[in-house]
Design goal:
Chain A: It comes from Actinokineospora xionganensis. The structure holds three protein chains of three kinds. By secondary structure, chain A is α/β, with parallel strands linked by helices. Chain A has eleven helices and 13 strands. In chain A, strand 1 and strand 2 form a beta hairpin. In chain A, helix 2 packs across helix 3, helix 3 crosses helix 4 and helix 8 packs across helix 9. About 4% of the residues of chain A have low confidence. Chain B has one domain. The model of chain B has no long low-confidence stretch (mean pLDDT 86). The two termini of chain B are 23 Å apart. Chain C has one domain. The chains are: A alpha/beta, B mainly alpha, C mainly alpha. The interface between B and C is medium-sized, with 33 and 34 residues. The structure holds adenosine-5'-triphosphate and magnesium ion. Magnesium ion binds next to helix 1 of chain A.
Chain lengths: 311, 241, 254
């Protein structure tokens, strides 16, 4: 179990992580979600004792990372696949890590095999593709057969096959009863990978829920209604207590499905021109949640328009 | 001109040239201040003494010049550069020129700054830049810094990595050139033709029995720099970016 | 012991220590060969003359030692290291020990290699290592390289950038210490206590009573203490730097 209590990190003027408290339960894959610059990597570095928190603390099974005996046997982490000396071979990289925590050297070949790097084990890591580097990073994380695993954007740069592989892999790790904490800025990816979610924005906790609840809440169904008798319909719907929103010449109903609205319309005698269910996308929900806490508004839409216009 | 502007922007939008400029100036001028402040009767103040820190400034300038190119290799921005300007010779020449000009300015500021602070601290010493030798010593520093920057850029292009380039650029003038004269028989003859010995002959010479006049020595040094630069340009054009 | 083994693996699975070892041996032994090849009756070969090139190996070893740390910062493998070994002092001390040992071995190889080449090339000159001075001049190189490596590791930890650490080390050892002598009155007084001057004094100073033709060598040190106190101060300087760097490394973010 990982536990963050009032975790805070300040870099000069930037408050990267702001009084963040959450727990990562055992036996589940917990997603760590937030837009770019939200403070995910910083939080993970603090969990690993690499960066000293300005305030608060992060505990692993009740202990500070620094107090763990042979920490690689308790916590495995892939924070950045590029943390490898480019002139060192994949095997040598794992060998020194194994040695440092008195892990059986045979385990090196095992993890190389698990991630499928056996054939390039003696090649210099600097020549690896991004996908291969990620696999090497995962191999390093698995080296000590740890109970707690941290992954920072592990699917970054992976092809669809690789993404699927990681997803299944994490599920398996969790099923084995391990604690898996994985960050991403893509909700759609997390919805498929994680069972629990810790969502942050600008260093602050936005919510900690199960993915199911989060998705249900995010994809809450609405129905669009168009009718020449809109005002009558509005009165009838208003009495049922559902929430209504005007959108142009149509009405958007939340909290009632198409069948119920259709029946109500029939009983009111209202003619329907349109009755269509609307599904909010996960990404939209995520945007809404973190909207005011996104650090870098890219003005993406405008950029795309400009490019499309050939400017 | 566009290329020069490009390289100027590239140089001044990173921090290292500013750091190097600041370090070079504070150290040379600071040393001049220190030495003039402590000078006494049995250690008369001369124009030469005010230029005491010139070698230090030279090292800093060479580090800056080498870094200007090796960091491009390190961060692969050299690829963006060659993508934007496929004529590699032109791109690298523009960079060399900009770096050399900056080095020259640093040299002049350091030299005149050192001289200036010395006259301020000890006005009664009546320091003046009067003879041709004095002018060479002070104003010549800029020329030497500029040419050394060319040499450093060339070494940077050839070696492509900071650690190697800086090591070579420091070890050569500071160690190799001082140890060569130790070799019996041939040492002195070789030493006469070493590039940084020639620099000393230009700035502070002639001393001993140099093979070339002061200006000849500078021309010789310039020749070495240009040959190295040419070798660097040929190499850069031949190999993958 | 484990930590030492870890650092040994790390050091020898990259290329730079191999390169540095080769270069250090090449330049020192090469310079000794040059000295021996050009020696003549009025400039005879001596044991100490076979070691005139020790400065070349010294700078190469310091570059190697600094790089052993700065590349860890550059490639962020220092984070992987601290992740595996959260006790930063222990991890960094292990690295320092391994690098210093390698530097010491390089020093011994370079010194005895230089001496061996000189002996072979000038067989008619007696280059036997007999006196305490001669032992210091040759075997002492290993000690000096090892301590210099500690200084370089410490500077590497403090500065974290290869370019900065190397410039600082090379400019300091080869320029700053020499320039200090030029400061009027106080300069020489300070200079005789500067660390690399003391190291030079340990290797070349206090020659044996029979004297030697030191006029044909790099200048002698102006240090006034005995050779062993000199190297002790040099070692103390190295340890002090290391201590400072460990404190700093523990305080800041990896
Ligand atoms: N070492 C540092 N020094 C200064 N500022 C930092 C440092 N590390 C992170 N920051 C700042 O802290 C904030 C959070 O950064 P962090 O890398 O933790 O975000 P993230 O959630 O991992 O983002 P991404 O999804 O892009 O990886 C950013 O504003 C970043 O600029
Ligand atoms: Mg991140």
């Amino acid at each position: 179990m990982i536990e963050a209590v009032g975790l805070t990190k300040r870099y000069g003027k930037t408050l990267a992580v702001d009084n963040l408290s959450f727990t990562v339960p055992t036996g589940r894959v917990t997603g760590f979600l937030g837009p770019n610059g939200a403070g995910k990597s910083t939080t993970m570095r603090m969990i690993l004792g690499l960066d000293a928190p300005t305030g608060g603390s992060a505990l692993i099974d009740g202990k500070h990372y620094r107090d763990l005996h042979q920490p690689l046997r308790t916590v495995g982490a892939l924070l950045d696949a590029k943390w490898v000396h480019p002139n060192r071979s994949a095997r040598a990289h794992l060998q020194w890590m194994a040695k440092s925590n008195k892990i059986n050297p045979k385990r090196v070949d095992e993890v190389l095999d698990i991630v499928g790097l056996t054939s390039v084990a003696n090649k210099r890591a600097g020549g690896f593709s991004l996908g291969m580097s990620q696999r090497l990073g995962i191999a390093a994380a698995l080296l000590g057969d740890p109970q707690v695993l941290l992954f920072d954007e592990p699917v970054n740069g992976l092809d669809p096959e690789g993404i699927l592989w990681i997803r299944k892999f994490m599920h398996r790790l969790a099923e084995e009863g391990r604690t898996v904490f994985v960050s991403s800025h893509l909700l759609s990816e997390m919805a498929l990978t994680a069972q629990e979610l810790v969502v942050i924005g600008r260093g602050k906790l936005i919510s900690q829920t199960s993915t199911e609840d989060f998705v249900a809440q995010a994809t809450e169904n609405t129905v669009r209604v168009r009718s020449p008798h809109l005002s009558a319909l509005r009165t009838a719907l208003g009495r049922t207590g559902v929430s209504l929103r005007d959108e142009g010449d149509s009405l958007v109903v939340t909290g009632m499905d198409c069948a119920e609205i259709g029946e109500l319309a029939a009983s009111t005698g209202a003619v329907l021109h349109e009755l269509s269910p609307q599904r909010g996308s996960l990404e939209e929900a995520f945007m809404q949640l973190t909207g005011d806490s996104v650090e870098y508004h890219a003005g993406l839409a405008e950029t795309i328009d400009l490019v499309a216009a050939g400017k | 001109m566009t290329l020069l502007a490009v390289e100027r922007i590239k140089l001044f939008t990173t921090r290292s040239p500013w750091w190097c400029l600041l370090t070079a100036l504070t150290v040379t001028v600071g040393l001049a201040a220190l030495i003039t402040a402590t000078a006494e009767a049995d250690f008369p103040l001369t124009v030469e003494v005010t230029q005491f820190g010139r070698m230090f400034g030279l090292m800093v300038v060479m580090v800056m010049a080498a870094l200007a190119i090796t960091t491009e290799y390190r961060f692969s921005t050299i690829r963006s550069t060659f993508q934007a300007i496929p004529n590699r010779t032109a791109a690298l020449l523009a960079k060399t020129l900009v770096v050399a000009l900056l080095a020259m300015v640093i040299g002049e500021l350091a030299a005149f700054g050192s001289f200036g602070i010395a006259t301020l601290i000890q006005p009664e010493a009546n320091l003046a830049i009067s003879s041709a030798a004095d002018w060479r010593l002070v104003a010549g520093t800029g020329l030497v810094y500029g040419l050394s920057a060319v040499l450093a850029v060339a070494v940077g292009v050839l070696l492509r990595q900071s650690a190697g380039a800086i090591s070579v650029l420091m070890i050569w003038p500071l160690l190799v050139e001082t140890l060569v004269p130790v070799i019996p028989r041939v040492g002195d003859d070789i030493a006469k033709w070493l590039p940084f010995t020639a620099v000393d002959q230009f700035l502070a010479g002639p001393t001993g029995n140099p093979p070339l006049s002061p200006w000849g020595s500078l021309a010789y040094f310039a020749g070495v720099c240009v040959v190295l630069l040419a070798a660097a340009l040929v190499t850069a054009n031949k190999r993958d970016a | 012991m484990t930590l030492l083994a870890v650092e040994r693996i790390k050091l020898f699975t990259t290329r730079s220590p191999w390169w540095c070892t080769l270069i250090a041996l090449g330049v020192t032994v090469g310079f000794a060969a040059l000295m021996a090849g050009t020696a003549e009756a009025d400039v005879p070969m001596t044991v100490s003359a076979s070691q005139f090139g020790y400065g070349f190996g010294l700078v190469v070893v310091m570059v190697m030692a600094a790089l052993a740390v700065t590349t860890e910062y550059r490639f962020s493998t220092i984070r992987a290291t601290f992740q595996a070994i959260p006790n930063r002092s222990a991890a960094l001390l292990a690295k320092t020990v391994v690098v210093a040992l390698l530097a010491g071995v390089i020093g011994l190889l370079a010194a005895f290699g230089s001496w061996g080449v000189a002996t072979m090339m000038t067989p008619d000159v007696d280059l036997a290592i007999n006196t305490a001075f001669e032992w210091r001049a040759v075997a002492g190189v290993g000690l000096v390289y090892a301590i210099a490596a500690v200084v370089a590791v410490a500077v590497g930890i403090l500065v974290r950038h290869s370019a900065g650490a190397i410039s600082l080390l090379l400019i300091y050892t080869n320029l700053v210490e020499n320039l200090v002598t030029l400061i009027p009155t106080v300069g020489p007084k300070i200079h005789q206590w500067l660390p690399f001057n003391l190291a030079h004094h340990f290797l070349t100073g206090n020659p044996d009573p029979t004297g030697r033709p030191d006029q044909f060598g790099p200048g002698l040190s102006d240090a006034t203490v005995g050779p062993w106190p000199a190297v002790a101060i040099f070692a103390g300087f190295g340890l002090l730097m290391l201590l400072i760097s460990l404190v700093v490394a523990n305080r800041r973010d990896a």
